[in-house]
Amino acid sequence: NSSFPSAKISQKAAASRNNFPSTIVIPINTADDDTAAQVASAIGGQLGVLPIGEQSPSADILIIIGQNYSY
After folding, report:
1. Half-sphere exposure of 5 toward its Cβ, with a 13 Å CA cutoff?
2. What percent helix, strand, coil does the chain show, rounded to 5?
3. Residue 61 has what DSSP assignment?
4. Were 53 and a residue from 2, 16, 23, 46 both cysteine, which residue would form a disulfide, CB within 3.0 to 4.6 Å?
């Protein structure tokens, strides 16, 4: 994405469940809160916290694509 030229997808995986109603952008480190908010705004998601049952990734930001996301 040209809005985030230094962004790199480090891993793609299925979430622990497939019924998240909306897309959630989760900063793993609080230092990434501002960037996560910008990503959430850019993709129409909302800022959130790591849901129970989800694994914390080695990435800086986790994005869970919700049912509301349209490609």
Report:
1. 1
2. 20, 15, 65
3. E
4. 16
- Using CA atoms, how far apart are residues 51 and 70, in angstroms rounded to an integer? 22
Tokens of 11: 């891993």
List all residues 6 or more positions away from 49 whose beta carbon is below 8 Å from its beta carbon.
26
pTM exceeding 0.90: no
Alpha-carbon separation of residue 29 from 36, 51, 54, 57, 71 (angstroms): 10, 15, 16, 11, 28
Neighbouring CB atoms inside 10 A of 47's CB total 15
> Tokens 């049912």 belong to which residue?
67
Q: pLDDT tens digits for 24-64?
A: 999 998 888 999 999 999 999 999 999 999 988 889 999 99
